[in-house]
Design brief:
The chain has about 70 residues and is mainly alpha-helical. The protein has 3 helices and no strands.
């Protein structure tokens, strides 16, 4: 059994209230890690092309206020 399969099995065995707590923990954990990855990508310049395209679209009038 792989490590992931064991984790899956353990999650399936959680009581409903434990599963609810796990969901909350995992959502917070996932969001924090996603934020770290976005920050690293931004610092490395991986988002520069997307940002430039968005700015170009805005400058040319292809955007609208939210």
């Amino acid at each position: 059994m792989t490590r992931l399969q064991k984790i899956e099995r353990d999650i399936e065995a959680l009581a409903p209230e434990e599963l609810a707590r796990f969901r909350l923990w995992f959502a917070e954990y996932d969001a924090a890690n996603w934020g770290i990855q976005i920050e690293a990508d931004a610092k490395a310049g991986r988002l520069d092309a997307l940002a430039e395209k968005a700015l170009a679209d805005h400058r040319s009038g292809r955007t609208r206020p939210l």
